[in-house]
Amino acid sequence: MKKKVNRWFDKVVAALLTWLGIAATGCSLSTEYGVPHADYILRGKVTRADTQEPIVGIRVAVGDGGYHADTLYTDANGEYRRMYLLSPQSIKVEDVDGAAGGGRFAPDSLRVTSEHLVDIELGEGWYSGTYGITADFALKQQDGEH
Q: What is the model's pTM?
């Protein structure tokens, strides 16, 4: 008789726990697949601090806060531009060609914050939209050059 009661009790407890487990999840869940994401367009211009003339060939190192860094170079107009899937966290500019680009210039950097982000296009659902980041730099010539 004791075995029958134990079996009956085990079945009741199992059924109760199963029902509670299903009831605890609810029925009004909506499921979306993917992760929240956005596009970030980074653009900027590097000029001479004294004359405002563009500087060609300046290396622009873009970091995402981790181990990844991307390297861009300024064009003939001193401009750079690239789209990213993660918001850039830091931007460092430095003269790597020496006097060949019009002089030797001191490096500069910028820590990107939410204040630098500008809404370009709003998204919906998992897609947060497109944001623009403009980072212009005016580099000073290093000592000993004019």
A: 0.70
**Cβ(78)–Cβ(56) under 8 Å?**
yes
- The CB density around residue 128, as the number of other CB atoms within 10 Å, is 15
**One-letter amino acid for residue 32 of the chain:** E
**In the chain, where are the structural domains located?**
37-139
Residue 21's H or E segment, with its range, is helix 2-25
- The pair of structure tokens assigned to 144 is 């000993």
Q: Which residues contact 143 (CB under 8 A, 6 or more apart)?
A: none
Question: Tell me: domain 37-139, CATH 3.10.20.30, correct?
Answer: no
C-alpha count within 13 angstroms, C-beta hemisphere, residue 83: 6
Tokens of 100: 């060949």
Q: What is the pLDDT of residue 24?
A: 54
- In the prediction, which pLDDT does 133 show? 93
- Residue of 104, 90, 110, 91 lying closest to 57 (CA atoms): 104
CA–CA gap between residue 76 and residue 72 (Å, rounded) = 13
- What DSSP element (H or E) covers 58? strand 58-63
State both tokens at 102.
């019009």
Mean pLDDT, the chain, rounded, equals 83
